[in-house]
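Dear colleagues,

I hope this message finds you well. In preparation for our joint manuscript, I am sending the DUF1285 domain-containing protein (Paracoccus pacificus) sequence together with its predicted structure, so that both groups work from identical material. I would be grateful if you could confirm receipt.
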Amino acid sequence: MPDATDTDVKSEKPSAENIASAAASAGRKGPPPVHLWNPPFCGDLDMEIRRDGTWFYQGTPIGRPAMVQLFASILKFEDGRHFLVTPVEKVGIRVEDAPFIAVDAEIAPDRITFTTNVGDTVTAGPDDPIRVRVDADGTPRPYVHIRRDLWALIDRKTFYRLADAARPGPGGALGVMSKGAFFALDGAA
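The corresponding structure tokens are as follows:
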């Protein structure tokens, strides 16, 4: 089946190919400054990030990790929606839960550094907090802030490792410390 780079699209409608081409042509090292880009909205793209972190284009999983990383680098969250942006184009995409999955963590006594499914790393702290939402059935859903209002769901094995490292904090809540900040793992503030 074709993936996001195998389809030849010859239309004026936004497409994954046009967005990827514009993003790649920037040729910069490091993440693009999407927070500075405010292009006009060009419509919605048939792209979705599923709850498990899999990216889909027109109903087909995007099988190339480099393409997913490229799209992830130009992801922006504003007004309650997710967009892919370039300096000249902004298209809406669907995200079922969080756009990223934290798939590993290096847990040190004074810091916790997470790695996501798209290769981003972030050290939790005051600017990049860990938050735990508790579903109606009592299931914890832990997240870590990655960048620019984008969050990663912490996968189960990594959350279990955090729970194993947890210690009592203020008010007796169990949690972890990173960069001088305490993060409760039970959903407490």
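For the figure legend, we might mention the following. Helices lie at 16-25, 65-73, 156-165. The longest strand covers residues 41-49.

With kind regards,
E.M.
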